[in-house]
Design goal:
homodimer; Alpha-Beta Plaits; ten-stranded mixed sheet; 255 residues; 6 helices; alpha+beta
Chain lengths: 255, 255
């Protein structure tokens, strides 16, 4: 059976996240319906991560199995003709039999966008977190450095998804300002539930002087979610990159 | 009674256009509700133009009358705190007693965005028209020049809104490509219903070789809507600039 890996992007504003639900529209269900119409049989699609309601993805990987003879390079246009404008498949590749979009993932990068301006902008604020109070991106970047490395991240996760361990390795975490837009980049071997949004809330706390960047190692050691910053809203969060070995990795690396 | 002019922008994706309707959410109604909560009495808001469902506005002008003593410079934040994220008021000014956002308007500019790429982009295609076939922006720009000047524009309007005359003066009409994005700018002393979308459809016809830029003067003279290009979809259209005299004009000129 062929194992097809897809590269896609989506604006999550209109969806209740990635994962299929009984009552609400999700990206997974919408994509499954488009694939099923294309390959003419029921499919289950595995995604590289569960994004929450309102979260976006610039580069997302998903895979499904099929006996259909459709040429791989025809799959993106075939799916796009059946998908709404807020989901687009940009590439497809035949993956090894044991490839799995979540299990085979080597590392992931999320970005978080903050529109830091006194005045809202309707063309930005559905896809960034509007934050009217001034933020200091340099202080935030100093605080971000404290998250890099192998740590127990229980202090910056929401309880909800069971997990064997709350230890992860953050490869990078940095903050840059470009005009009114502040972007936070976080890359790790894996993420706990709401981890990026809680890290960004903690960076905002650092900018506001509610904690010092030097406090963060101790806060991580204590592991108490009540001592770190708030979980930031979903519309600023994007799945930005996902890394794999082989052909799927090469497909996902295209800018 | 004070006459307050507002400068606002909106993403029209979620609205059934500007004008109030009995059953559907519109920008006018949403704004009126926010103003009424702020000034504590019923208001009627006059807009600078009726945009259709799905059409956006980067700079839009509206006015309303009130006896409220709220300082003018506090109005934008007061309204924004009551408006959804897809509508934002960026400035307010006290206008002359006889100012009217539509009647006092000197000229308007619309832009139309075409995302000309083989592959869709969810972060562009709700706010631009996705067009996968190659378009020649130079041919479109040559055709655009034929619309400039004082003409009868009956050939590029949809019937629907009664109007005394179908003669208008187009001050400029030009087309530029920036990567995958083609933008059409059209400025006129006034616009007929669907005029910009029909002009852009005619420019697309010119690019496709379905008509020649040299044909356009004769097509305008004939005034037959069936001979020009199609009405393009709404999501590419933006009210871009509106010109007035005096303080309102200065407010609307801020970049």
């Amino acid at each position: 059976m062929r194992n097809i890996a897809l590269r896609l992007s989506y604006d999550g504003s209109a969806y209740h996240g990635w994962q299929a639900q009984a009552s609400e529209a999700t990206v997974q269900q919408t994509l499954e319906r488009a694939v099923e119409k294309t390959v003419q049989h029921p499919v289950h699609i595995t995604g590289c991560g569960r994004t929450d309601a309102g979260v976006h993805a610039m580069r997302y990987c998903a895979n499904f199995r099929t006996d259909s003879a459709i040429p791989t390079d025809r799959i993106p246009l075939a799916l796009n003709s059946r998908l709404p404008a807020d989901i687009a498949v940009s590439a497809a590749v035949e993956a090894p039999e044991d490839f799995n979009a979540i299990g085979s993932c080597l590392q992931k990068e999320y970005i978080y966008k903050i529109h830091n301006s006194r005045i809202r902008d309707p063309f930005l604020d559905l896809r960034a977190c509007f934050w009217p109070a001034p933020l200091d991106a340099d202080v935030m970047n100093a605080a971000a450095a404290a998250f890099v490395g192998r740590h127990d991240f229980a202090a910056v996760r929401s309880v909800g998804t069971p997990t064997k361990t709350t230890v992860r390795t953050v490869h990078w975490c940095r903050v840059e300002r470009d005009g009114d837009m502040i972007t936070v980049w976080v890359c790790a071997d894996g993420f706990l539930y709401n981890m990026v949004r809680a890290i960004v809330g903690t960076l905002v706390y650092a900018s506001d002087g509610k904690l010092s960047p030097a406090d963060i190692p101790l806060l991580l050691e204590k592991g108490d979610r009540r001592l770190t910053g708030p979980t930031m809203p979903p519309q600023g969060l994007y799945m930005h990159r996902v890394w794999y070995e082989g052909d799927v990795g090469r497909m996902m690396a295209i800018p």
